[in-house]
Write a structure and sequence with these properties.
Layout: E1 20-23, E2 26-42, H1 47-61, E3 73-77, H2 91-103, E4 109-113, E5 121-123, E6 126-128, H3 131-138, H4 140-146, E7 150-153, E8 162-165, E9 177-180, E10 188-192, E11 196-198, E12 202-204, H5 216-224, H6 229-235, H7 240-245, E13 246-253, E14 256-257, E15 267-268, E16 272-278, H8 281-296, H9 303-310, H10 312-327, H11 329-334, H12 350-358, E17 362-369, H13 376-385
Parallel strand pairs: 2-17, 3-4, 3-10, 4-7, 10-13
Antiparallel strand pairs: 1-2, 2-16, 5-6, 8-9, 11-12, 13-16, 14-15
Length: 390
């Protein structure tokens, strides 16, 4: 159990057309063509090169016509621990996005999150732990403030500073999701996850990052009713707030947490790294997961590492532990069995498979280069991995 305790949990794109593709033995509607932009970043690239890549991919993805002068924007990173990138979002990328939004006319630019139960516990009785301290440790806080942004941590406003937001009809959630009030104060949301393995979920990309918004009671239902853990991950992104306000998803992925996750694991830095962006979180995650899988092919793990990274029992025990932290040992012992996602191809991923259903079909991903450092063979490979014929 001591080993398990290291595991912290930290564009609604329109109606699909009539085209169908086979998905797990069933027909699945294809969604609209959706562009995902890629900027290349070489191994060991300077901070300035990374800044230029993030700016290039963001400006290629959107013209920012949705942003009016003085609008408030919330940036949601992945802050599941105080560990450095890629265990958390790249501070350089966060800083560039704050600067870019300010230059485009934004008023307040707020960056915030709430860490997982291993690090931070908010309850009606009080608070332990600090997301603020962890953001400072990760280097994100300094980057945000240097760029003129604000930092915000949901738990600091207290248990009552959340509101109930309903997911799309037909979801596996029994109740609405408790979301932080700060989201009502902004006009727009930018999601900035990272590319990482996750010991419970299989991977943690854009859709999984929504967990950081949720109050403890929502997280308890998520982990306790674990037979639909992956489906609820996708459905959690259909709440009205995110459907109406989320504009852009950007991931720096020149470094990948390739095993275990979300806080610890083998950090892999490919020769040709990427920054990935799309207006669609689903299309973004298709490419980000393909990138994770492509790079996992380049590592070898020892027997001990293999067990920790791949064993379904580690995931199940770990989830029971998380439930115990959220709700006590009674709910933990009664919680449903978690089945960890396979990671062989993106088509195995239950989070994405459910996302295709609730977001109007599987996006037909169109990959486009945002700078001239993107290797053509890499673009071709990722295109093959994210395209499925009927």
């Amino acid at each position: 159990m001591a080993g398990v305790s290291a595991m912290a949990v930290c564009s609604w794109k329109g109606v699909a057309d009539a085209s169908q593709t086979s998905q797990g033995g069933r027909s699945l509607a294809l969604g609209p063509q959706t562009r995902v932009f890629l900027a290349g970043v070489g191994r060991g690239a300077s901070e300035e090169v990374m800044k230029l890549a993030v700016r290039a991919v963001a400006e290629a993805t959107t013209d920012f016509s949705w942003l009016s002068k003085g609008d408030a924007v919330f940036i949601k990173p992945a802050l599941n621990s105080g560990n450095p990138y890629p265990a958390t979002t790249n501070p350089i990328a966060i800083g560039v996005m704050v600067e870019l939004l300010k230059q485009k006319g934004a008023g307040r630019v707020i960056v915030g999150d709430m860490c997982g139960i291993e690090q931070v516990k908010l309850s009606p009785k009080g608070l332990s732990g600090s997301s603020r301290r962890l953001m400072e440790a990760s280097g994100m806080a300094r980057a945000v403030q240097a760029a003129g942004g604000e930092i915000h941590f949901f738990e600091e406003a207290g248990w009552g500073a959340f509101y109930e937001d309903a997911p799309a009809a037909g979801s596996h959630w029994k109740r609405g999701l408790m979301m932080p009030h700060i989201l009502k104060e902004v006009e727009h949301i930018i999601l900035m996850p990272r590319c990482s393995r996750h010991v419970l979920a299989g991977s943690t990309l854009g859709l999984k990052a929504a967990v950081g918004y949720w109050r403890g009671d929502t997280r308890l239902e998520y982990h306790r009713d674990a037979s639909t853990f992956q489906e609820k991950t996708a459905e959690g992104n259909t709440v009205e707030t995110l459907r109406k306000k989320q504009r852009l998803v950007v991931s720096a992925a020149d470094k990948i947490l390739i095993t275990f996750g979300p806080d610890e694991g083998h950090v892999f830095q490919p020769e040709n790294g990427l920054v990935i962006a799309s207006e669609s979180v689903v299309a973004h995650d298709m490419v980000s997961l393909a990138w994770l899988l492509e790079n996992r092919r380049n590592i070898e793990t020892s027997g001990k590492e293999w067990v920790k990274d791949n064993s379904p029992w580690v995931a199940r025990i770990g989830n029971h532990y998380v439930v115990s932290k959220l709700g006590g040992w009674g709910p933990a012992l009664a919680s449903e069995k978690l089945t960890k996602n396979d990671l062989h191809a993106i088509w195995d991923d239950r989070v994405l498979n459910r996302a295709y259903e609730v977001f109007g079909g599987m996006p037909r991903v169109i990959l486009e280069a945002a700078n001239n450092a993107l290797a053509e063979n890499l673009k071709k490979r990722l295109s093959e991995m994210t395209t499925r014929s009927a």
